Amino acid sequence: MAKRKTIRTIPQARTPMPEQAPEIRITNFEEVACGYRLEDALLEAERCLDCPDQPCVRGCPVGIDIPGFIRKIAEKNFHGAYDVITDTNLLPSVCGRVCPQESQCEGVCTVGERLEPVAIGRLERFIGDRAIAEGWTNLPYIERNRHKVGVVGSGPAGMACAADMAKAGCEVTVFEAFQEPGGVLKYGIPDFRLPNSVVDAEIEKLRQLGIRFECNTLVGRLFTLEQMMGEMGFSAVFVGTGAGYPSFMGIPGESLGGVLSANEWLTRCNLMHGRDFPAYDTPLQPGKHVAVIGAGNTAMDAMRVALRVGAEKVTCVYRRSAAEAPARAEEIHHAQQEGIDFQWLTSPVELIGDEQHRVRAMRCERMELGEPDASGRRRPVPVAGSAFEIECDMVVFAIGTNANPILGQTSGLKLDKRGYIWTDDTLATSIAGVFAGGDIVTGAATVIQAMGAGRRAARAMKAYLGLRDTDAVYLAAPTDPAERLFGIPRRERGFARVHLPETAS
Amino acid sequence: MSDFEIVARSDFSDVTFSLEVRHPLMARAAKPGQFVIVMEHEHGERIPLTLADFDRDKGTITLVIQAVGKTTREMQQNCRVGTRLHALVGPMGIPSHIGAAKKVICVGGGLGVAPIYPQARAYKESGAYVIGVLGFRNKGLIFWEDKFRACCDELILCTDDGSAGIKGLVTEGIKQSISAHADIDEVVAIGPPIMMKGCAEATRPFGIKTMVSLNPVMVDGTGMCGGCRVKIGEVVKFACVDGPDFDGHLVDFDDLMARLGRFRPTEKAALEAWQESCRLRGGAGH
Ligand SMILES: Cc1cc2nc3c(=O)[nH]c(=O)nc-3n(C[C@H](O)[C@H](O)[C@H](O)COP(=O)(O)OP(=O)(O)OC[C@H]3O[C@@H](n4cnc5c(N)ncnc54)[C@H](O)[C@@H]3O)c2cc1C
Ligand SMILES: Cc1cc2nc3c(=O)[nH]c(=O)nc-3n(C[C@H](O)[C@H](O)[C@H](O)COP(=O)(O)OP(=O)(O)OC[C@H]3O[C@@H](n4cnc5c(N)ncnc54)[C@H](O)[C@@H]3O)c2cc1C
Ligand code: SF4
Ligand code: FES
Fold this sequence. Notes:
The structure holds two protein chains of two kinds.
Chain A: H1 22-25, H2 38-45, H3 55-59, H4 66-74, H5 78-88, H6 92-98, H7 120-134, E1 148-152, H8 156-167, E2 171-175, H9 184-187, H10 196-208, E3 212-214, H11 225-229, E4 236-239, E5 245-246, E6 259-261, H12 262-269, E7 289-293, H13 297-308, E8 313-317, H14 329-337, E9 341-343, E10 346-353, E11 359-372, E12 378-382, E13 388-391, E14 394-397, E15 401-402, H15 406-410, E16 434-436, H16 439-442, H17 447-465, H18 481-486
Parallel strand pairs in A: 1-2, 1-4, 2-3, 4-16, 6-14, 7-8, 7-14, 8-9
Antiparallel strand pairs in A: 5-15, 10-11, 11-12, 11-13
Helix pairs in contact in A: 2-4, 4-5, 4-7, 5-7, 6-7, 8-17, 12-13
Chain B: E1 6-11, E2 16-22, H1 24-29, E3 35-39, E4 47-50, E5 53-55, E6 60-66, H2 70-78, E7 87-92, E8 103-109, H3 113-125, E9 129-136, H4 145-151, E10 154-159, E11 166-167, H5 170-180, E12 186-190, H6 193-203, E13 209-213, E14 229-232, E15 235-238, H7 239-242, E16 245-247, H8 253-260, H9 264-285
Parallel strand pairs in B: 8-9, 8-12, 9-10, 10-11, 12-13
Antiparallel strand pairs in B: 1-2, 2-6, 3-4, 3-7, 5-6, 13-16, 14-15
The structure holds flavin-adenine dinucleotide (2 copies), iron/sulfur cluster and FE2/S2 (inorganic) cluster (FES).
């Protein structure tokens, strides 16, 4: 037997990923990080210790067999690596790019205790991209059953659920309100982070599993969930409609021209190609001095898009400090490199307009951190007499979203007190046969958490339909930290587990 | 869901036309007061249009469109019987509440004439006495008079120049109806914001409930972009999911009108660029 690798025998430095220089990339929408070349991937794969206890797998909300796929890369069996990943995750090119690995798999990687952790996300992306480039698929043998399953919403939650149900033999139709499937991946996250072509390629793989996508379909209004479960003949329905309804602060001046939500800004730019106006018809009207409120991934995306469509100055206004900013570390870093001006501990109090009813400045107050609040973060408190103005001709609100009201208005779904869909531990809703997951249940979260929820709901749906749980065999043995992190009962994952429902302990 | 084929078209004037589009599911689901979002082609803009009519038996919906800017003019030029829309989604919005009102005035101004039709018909079907007040700039622009006569107990036409019906704005028609009938329960008004504002002011002194259908700039129509936010009293609502019908006495029309103008410079540029390219193409072809 070969000698076990140790932390001392592996390449000590993490293999860097080639990146576009900041001054170049702010002039285009090409990807910032260019991806590993073959030799980079092989080198990085050498850094995995193949730990017996596999902390990384537990850190992954869908439990990808991480050492398994990295081992296959090291053996140059890329096809095999792809099969290992796609047994649990159908969107490796997406997740490899946008998952917050630093707080998930890489955050608990053993190598990370002494050196930089294995670049799991980059390796995942490497495999996913290779599969797209070379047209690989991992089509399982599917035994058809008589069940028709409907999925509402084509974001990551819906896609993950649809894939599992299709693999279990159901006839799956995904309904999407927009003209193209993909959810936030398509309309929200910009091309320089996640090209729409990558999302399209991953969706194409779902089509190969036999999943149908019906776009231009607003469920709740064109037909109701009850109709789906009744006259339309669906045996079960999954709702993954996301939490799109944008929040504003309620400060004076929000209805001025040039003031918009990050969702509107990003949708106009990404899905509707406003940046290619007039070749595309949707107007963008980018500002010269743009102020974005918030410091999550959405805010970073909104700011970096603004830079790329010609803003001269972009300011991030956030009421807490950098340490509390919810965006991925890598995104904040990239934004800083690109020259975005961060005003931490700053809160807007009023937007000021000109005679044309367009915004011309934002009045702000400096904040300091006081006692911790309910979220455990220190509460920002205004500093008396610190008001000042930021000149701006565009203001983007990226301060979070709420539940979309349509399905609540049109069906008998029980909602929680904030308007999100209520589910039990198996993700079953109050309507028999209807399950829900992703942002519409938890509130805004992450791509992989939404996928995890879609897969969890799929298991419950299979149990509900009396189908054999086909993916249990792929999953690693359960233990705990991710359960605490992501609220996903890991016990569901065990080989031995046969029946749902189970509840988190 | 459907391939969005255009099965009929009629032109009411040089700027208004109607399209009948096949979409059986939508024809079944549609209710008065709702709207759709259309994309004419792959590079197009998503634009909201009211469901002016729907025929459940034929499985079609009808849109009435006024060619004002690039997208609507392009549709006027390209949407012929047999062509297809790239995208059509809906019905959107909360259906109008057709309550137990016994006597209502349905007011349509300009393009609002089309969307008021399903409401007038629904009120008639619910047993109400329906007074139609329709405003046009001149006689030549009048359309659907017969359709309205069929569902209104009284029909008052108003034209700006007096070429048909009474001379004046729809508010004149409202005043006449109110003085002729002391027992109006409700007024429903659809049209340009300035007209709806006028209607709301005309009924305010009488305390008659007045519903209006708001038309802010929309992108998705599903409550996701917040572009359609409107001020209703002290609160902000999203017209696409909380409306588009609101109590006219609470609407901040000035705010609505200011927000409608927010893309005007770009819209103008788009229209000019498009007209230029049409001239070029036309020139090359002839
Ligand atoms: C700008 C931005 C950047 C982000 N960056 C990251 C990141 O870097 N990493 C990360 O992990 N997460 C990121 N997130 C969060 C992540 O994208 C979301 O958590 C995830 O997409 C949620 O997935 P979902 O499937 O629940 O819903 P969504 O992706 O929101 O998809 C819901 C879909 O349902 C459709 N829909 C809604 N209602 C209906 C209806 N009634 N009928 C039919 N269809 C309907 C919507 O049109 C939409 O396509 C980001 C989010 C945004 C907005
Ligand atoms: C709920 C609703 C129902 C509507 N119903 C109809 C209808 O039945 N028939 C009809 O002809 N028009 C209707 N409209 C208006 C129609 O959407 C606009 O005329 C159209 O978007 C203009 O596009 P354009 O490119 O031709 O013109 P543009 O050059 O883009 O704009 C011309 C003017 O139209 C308004 N406008 C532009 N974009 C939008 C938008 N996305 N949403 C709303 N207004 C906009 C602005 O005031 C603008 O100044 C409705 C609007 C709403 C919100
Ligand atoms: S924790 Fe890190 S080193 Fe250990 S198996 Fe996972 S990726 Fe490899
Ligand atoms: S149109 Fe986007 S929220 Fe209403």
